[in-house]
Amino acid sequence: MFENKEKTLVFDPRAEIIFLILANIAAFTQRSIYVEVGLIALLIIMLVYAKCYKASVKWIILFGITLMLQYYILPYGPKFIRDTFSFLVFYVRKIFPCLIVGTLIVKTTEVRYFVLALRKWHLPEQIIIPLSVTMRYFPSIKEETGHIRDAMKLRKVKGVAKLECYLVPLMISATNTAEELSAAAVTRGIENPVRKTSVVNIHFYIQDYICLALIIISVIGAVVFK
Amino acid sequence: MATIRTSGSKALKGKDLITIGIFSAIYFIINFIIMISSGLSPVIWILMPGIIALLTGVPFMIMVSKVQKTGAVFVMGIITGLLYFLTGQFTLVILITFVVSCLIAEIIRFVTNYRSYLGNMLAFVFFSLGMIGSPLPIWLFRDSFFAQIKEQGMSADYVANLEAVSSTGMLIVLIVAPIIGAVIGGIITKVLFNKHFQKAGIV
Q1: What is the ipTM of this complex?
Q2: Dihedral, CA of residue A18, residue A23, residue A29 and residue A31, to nearest 10
Q3: What is the pLDDT of residues A2-49, one digit of tens each?
Q4: Closest by alpha carbon to A137, among B2, B28, B127, B86?
């Protein structure tokens, strides 16, 4: 438990949340392809800096594919396909910066650091607890639906019945998880009304400030270059 | 099974918060998948609140039956809103419709004393109406909305398509769809409650 105490984070979780908000603003105000590519490049460099090599390669390839689709393939395709997919591709490209920062947060920040960040911002516990549970539970849903899919393949479930077969086990496992998790959390004093202390700590370091400055520059770029 | 029973107070406790968190995750995932697929066609976007209501009835209804306290729906709404904010889908209009619909849902639950099935279903109808804030700007600020999405580089075909689809009649469809969807979603939940969940002892 204690070796984590000395571990320094790549970015402060608070900085990461600000990155996310700024990347959002930049993504939805920019109209110039150069600003967009610049922003994506910056975010991928941050991802590489955080040692997420696999994810960086994945995002570069995906971004390349969407650009190709939008400029070289879809305009020459049949009208039906163009109508159906041009918005989807456009839309996915818009949320790319958010997805990359999202990857960064998920890969580098444990939920307890995140919780600490939100506590430092004095969010009420009634929001912090469910929000952290929600974020922790997403991977479990993925895992769970994988198991359900395998089970359905074995039993050859087809059609609308599939939906029921997804929902019911998911609900039952969710309910059981809620029971178990609450038992564990109550034992560890979640209902204790005093202000929580933390064994870990977070600070803004030089890399946080540099990346913040760079992202702010790209937001300005997004607003200025039309 | 050991259930944690704290005093009968109506404030949200640790266990309630965890339950809300878990069901919000399921609600958000279903919601998000439909939201993304609504990019395929403007019609799906307008029907989206209805489709979401139809498919999210089960997690919502189980959540409210497990947390029979003030604020559960509101916290779920805030979490969904925060997650949407992080994924860049959140607008001021959604914020307003979300807050209003969650408040109405909470009032209905308070009046019906949290236990009534019909009361919970009615609360779900209003909660589902919160999602209409997503396509609502098309009608609220029609001209500036179309000017803005054109400027953002959306393909001209899509914009023309959206303009054609978004008649006043479709506004009624947008509002009625979640009501019908939520009622059907509520009925499906009732069937599943009787068929599975009561047997499994989770409600």
Answers
A1: 0.84
A2: 160
A3: 444 445 578 999 999 899 889 888 887 877 888 889 999 999 999 999
A4: B28
Q: Tally the residues of chain B.
A: 203
Which of A138, A171, A192, A225 to mutate to probe the B interface, most B CBs <10 Å? Answer: A171
CB of A185 closer than 8 Å to CB of A133? no
- Chain centre to alpha carbon of residue B126: 8
Q: How far is CA B18 from each of CA A184, B4, B31, rounded to the nearest angstrom?
A: 11, 12, 20
Whole-angstrom distance, CA of residue A37 vs CA of residue A136: 31
How many whole angstroms separate alpha carbon B112 and alpha carbon B107? 9
Q: Mutating which of B4, B17, B202 best tests the A interface, going by the most A Cβ atoms within 10 A? A: B17
Chain B residues with CB inside 8 Å of A24's CB?
Answer: 86, 88
Whether A95 and chain B come into contact, CB under 8 Å, resolves to: yes
Interface of B with A in 36-55 (CB under 8 A): 36, 39-41, 55
Residues of chain B numbered 148-177 and touching chain A (CB < 8 Å):
151-155, 157-158, 161
Neighbours of B96 (CB within 10 A): 13
